[in-house]
Write a structure and sequence with these properties.
Elements (H helix, E strand, L loop, with lengths): L20 H11 L14 E5 L2 E4 L4 E4 L2 H4 L8 H13 L11 H13 L6 E6 L2 H16 L3 E5 L8 H6 L17 E4 L13 H15 L5 E6 L15 H11 L3 E5 L23 E4 L10 E6 H4 L15 H16 L2 H22 L3 E7 L2 E6 L9 H13 L2 E2 L1 E3 L5 E4 L7 H18 L1
Parallel strand pairs: 3-13, 5-6, 5-7, 7-8, 8-9
Antiparallel strand pairs: 1-2, 2-3, 4-10, 9-10, 11-12, 12-15, 14-15
Helix pairs in contact: 3-10, 4-10, 7-8, 11-13, 12-13
The structure holds 4'-deoxy-4'-aminopyridoxal-5'-phosphate.
Length: 446
């Protein structure tokens, strides 16, 4: 197995308070120029990033446990990716695949056919963002089935465009006052083992949703079901075993398109190429983005040839979709993931992190649940002795970690989940140092 190489020293090192002077100055400038509606999780500005570290404009080196929300799995400046980007940019940055096509797009589509679940004949179409991929998966499903209803689930996150806001469950901050939303979206209960009634199996949770779908919508109106195989923004919720296979099998036998939204879970993040692989689930359509291109904006829908080829010529596309520089980055990213055996590396991260967090959970009463898969791991924080969400503590813990030089993100419908999404190339020592800090903060704050 090739070992990762690093350009920057892989260490946590603080040269100033967080944020430092230059970051504070940029924050002041930003207030006069950048829309207030765009938030940032950390108060520092990036100057450089590589492997498991982000260096800010004041020279602070932070351990990265966020990967720009599960994007830079190969690191933020993997040499293969940056070289491929530079080489392609020096030849041409854009022609528009809908005008003058190029090989990179075709090559990415071939690779996606190979690595996504299922041996069937597949086709792909490329876009710029996760939300755009989801929108297009729904377009394809509606056209191919001639039906209009779409089922999304509690705790789902699918994006911020009008249709994907409608699919997303959480009101604040994603949907509040942005309506009216797209019609014909129905929300069903999913599977949340920590909060579901105890003993409920995945199969039973799926049957519960299926019976509601049959009663409330009717299968002959239903185009698609969309599910994140591990729900991301909703709280890193791993459905109970059996939930996804039951739902997918029911969809298949009723002519309903099963869309797996793997925008956050895809590309080695959960210890396999895709999270669906863990239970052998083969989606009809799969949406991808984030980890696909090492930080360059690219997204894709891959799925059954008969679904994608049902769409008339010109029905799918966009000016920038499958940009040649982003395609070059994706090809280099996929190659790096194979060379560095990143699915195995994600599984190793799980074995390094989860036992430590479980030991901690046995001692710290505010840790309600430790869960996740591969390098998509989370701690759900509660009020001691209950399962009541503890968003205040979650916020305080994240702020404290960031001030100590560990970049960590939160998530969850109730705002009470600390999530770990390190670059998959992070070294064991650096990861272990980040866990030391996390452990110390959780012990003192709880
Ligand atoms: N689907 C899922 C599962 C996601 O996690 C996200 C992003 N967090 C999206 C869709 C939207 O992706 P983007 O922000 O690239 O539009």
């Amino acid at each position: 197995m090739t070992e990762p190489t690093y350009r920057l020293a892989q260490k946590r090192h603080l040269t100033s308070a967080i944020p430092g002077q230059r970051s504070l100055e940029l924050t002041a400038r930003r207030r006069t120029a950048v829309a207030a509606g765009v938030g940032s999780s950390v108060p520092v500005y990036a100057a450089d990033a590589d492997g498991g570290v982000i260096v800010d404009v004041d020279g602070n080196s932070l351990i990265d446990l966020g990967s720009g929300i599960a994007v830079t799995s190969v690191g933020a400046s993997h040499p293969g990716v940056t070289a491929a980007v530079a080489e392609q940019a020096a030849r041409f940055t854009h022609t528009c695949f809908m005008v003058t096509p190029y090989e990179g797009y075709v090559h990415v589509a071939e690779q996606l056919s190979m690595i996504t679940p299922g041996e069937h004949e597949k086709r792909s179409v490329l876009f710029n963002s996760g939300a755009e991929a989801v929108e297009n998966a729904v377009k394809i499903a509606r056209l191919a089935t001639g039906r209009s209803a779409v089922v999304a689930f509690d705790h789902a996150y699918h994006g911020r465009t009008n249709l994907t806001m409608a699919l997303t469950a959480k009101n604040v901050p994603y949907k509040s006052h942005f309506g009216p939303f797209a019609p014909e979206i129905y929300r069903m209960p999913g599977s949340y083992p920590y909060r579901d009634e105890s003993g409920l199996t995945g199969e039973q949770a799926a049957e519960h949703a299926i019976s509601r779908i049959e009663k409330q919508i009717g299968t002959d109106s239903l185009a698609a079901i969309i599910y994140e195989p591990i729900q991301g923004e909703g709280g890193f919720i791993v459905p109970a075993p059996g939930f996804l296979p039951t739902l997918a099998a029911w969809a298949r036998s009723n002519g309903v398109v099963f869309i797996a939204d793997e925008v956050q879970t895809g590309f080695a993040r959960t210890g396999d190429w895709f999270a669906c692989d863990h239970e052998g689930v083969v989606p009809d359509l799969i949406t991808m983005a984030k980890g696909i291109a090492g930080g360059m904006p690219l997204a894709a829908v891959t799925g059954r040839a008969e679904l994608l080829d049902a769409v008339h010529a010109g029905g799918l596309g966009g000016t920038y979709g499958g940009n040649p520089v982003a395609c070059a980055a994706a090809l280099a990213t996929i190659e790096a993931m194979r060379d560095l055996k990143l699915p195995a590396r994600a599984r190793r991260i799980e074995t390094l992190v989860v036992p430590r967090l479980q030991r901690l959970a046995a001692e710290v009463p505010t840790i309600g649940d430790v869960r996740g898969r591969g390098a998509m791991l989370a701690i759900e924080l509660v009020r001691p002795g209950t399962d009541m969400p503890n968003p205040e503590l979650t916020k305080a813990v994240a702020e404290e970690l960031i001030s100590q030089g560990v970049l960590i993100l939160t998530c969850g419908t109730y705002g009470n989940v600390i999530r770990l999404l390190p670059p998959l190339v992070i070294g064991d020592e650096l990861l272990s140092e980040a866990l030391d800090v996390l452990e110390a903060v959780l012990r003192t704050r709880s």
